[in-house]
């Protein structure tokens, strides 16, 4: 299974007699607080037929010092068990979020060792516009078990996650040498938040960036219909942003959500070594000891 699947592909799978036998569709929608939207209520109002609700907003590690951190392995394994997802099931993720949260769910799963995970290209909106099969209600979540995580879905400790300490080392090397170091930091936020000097409209605190960070706003990786641009166009986009695709990349954003979109877009260009700074600007800006830049580069 490809990591990006079309609405036509999913519709065809759903019409086959055994098409969904090992295929699980998960609604990974999560919304910014300022949107006033309730992802669970919207799921129960209308979702892709047979889909289950991931509850991405509550899949964060409460023991971590990182704001809204990725879930730990036990926490994610338990949620998969509660949703009735087996170790060998194929997972299709979709969302209806302005910040494309299915990419965050994809990263959480692959970082913990799941392999058969895909994003529905264009998400719920494209599926709905094309007349895809929909239903209402709680979905398959109502009768699922709430037992402890089974050994079948036990996951690995997360990989491809960068810490604030690692980012500090990257910045320190750069500041000491006076030039850009080997590792590149790529910020997914809008340019006005990265290069501005006012208050961050999403998370509060000051706008700004990690010193030396490049900028590729996450919205640029999509076509007008919400589907991902083709790999060649994505490569051109990253190169235009100053990214050397042959060198290490760590993505960042406000809180680790849209940075996941860039990790997935890089994956589509066959760059599978990019890492995510999960704490992102929310963690970095809140620490008075971290170096910061504002204004134009």
Radius of gyration using CA atoms only: 19 Å
Sheet-strand content, in percent, reads 5-15%
> Which series of helices and strands comes N to C?
EHEHEEHEHEHEEHEHEHEHEH
Taking the sheet with the most strands, its summary is: 5 strands, parallel
Task: Give the CA-based shape.
Answer: globular
Stretches with pLDDT under 50, minimum 5 residues: 142-149
**Structural class label:** alpha/beta
Q: Which homologous superfamily in CATH is the superfamily of the largest domain?
A: Rhodanese-like domain
Mean pLDDT: 91
| CATH level 1 class label of the largest domain | Alpha Beta
- Number of helices in the DSSP assignment: 10
Question: At the third CATH level, what is the topology name of the largest domain?
Answer: Oxidized Rhodanese, domain 1
Strand line-up in the sheet with most strands = 1-6-5-2-4
Number of domains: 2
Distance between the termini: 41 Å
CATH architecture of the largest domain: 3-Layer(aba) Sandwich
How many β-strand stretches? 12
Helix content class? 25-40%
Describe the SSE topology.
Elements: E1 4-5, H1 7-15, E2 23-27, H2 39-45, E3 47-48, E4 52-53, H3 73-82, E5 90-94, H4 102-111, E6 117-120, H5 123-129, E7 134-135, E8 161-162, H6 164-177, E9 184-187, H7 191-195, E10 214-215, H8 231-240, E11 249-252, H9 258-268, E12 275-277, H10 280-286
Parallel strand pairs: 1-6, 2-4, 2-5, 5-6, 8-12, 9-10, 9-11, 11-12
Antiparallel strand pairs: 3-7
Helix pairs in contact: 4-9
């Amino acid at each position: 299974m490809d990591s990006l699947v079309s609405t036509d592909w999913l519709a065809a799978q759903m019409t086959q007699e055994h098409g969904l036998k090992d295929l699980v569709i998960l609604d990974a929608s999560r919304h910014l607080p300022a949107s006033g939207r309730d992802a669970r209520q919207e799921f129960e109002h209308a979702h892709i037929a047979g889909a289950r609700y991931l509850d991405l907003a509550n899949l964060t590690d409460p023991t971590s010092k990182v704001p809204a951190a990725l879930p730990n392995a036990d926490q994610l394994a338990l949620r998969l068990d509660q949703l009735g997802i087996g170790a060998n099931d194929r997972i299709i993720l979709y969302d209806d979020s302005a910040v494309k949260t299915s990419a965050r769910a994809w990263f959480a799963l692959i970082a913990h060792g799941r392999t058969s995970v895909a994003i529905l290209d264009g998400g719920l909106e494209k599926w709905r516009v094309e007349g895809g099969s929909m239903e209402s209600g709680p979905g398959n979540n109502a009768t699922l078990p709430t037992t402890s995580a089974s050994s079948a879905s036990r996951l690995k400790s997360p990989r491809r996650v960068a810490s604030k300490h690692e980012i500090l080392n990257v910045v320190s090397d750069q500041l000491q040498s006076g030039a850009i170091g080997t590792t590149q930091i790529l910020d997914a936020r809008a340019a006005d938040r990265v290069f501005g000097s006012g208050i961050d409209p999403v998370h509060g605190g000051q706008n700004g960036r990690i010193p030396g960070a490049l900028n590729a706003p996450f919205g640029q990786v999509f076509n007008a219909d919400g589907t991902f641009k083709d790999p060649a166009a994505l490569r051109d986009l990253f190169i235009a942003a100053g990214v050397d695709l042959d060198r290490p990349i760590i993505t960042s954003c406000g809180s680790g959500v849209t940075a996941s979109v860039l990790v997935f877009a890089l994956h589509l260009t066959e760059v599978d070594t990019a890492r995510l700074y999960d704490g992102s600007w929310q963690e970095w800006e809140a620490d008075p000891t971290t170096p910061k830049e504002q204004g134009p580069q």
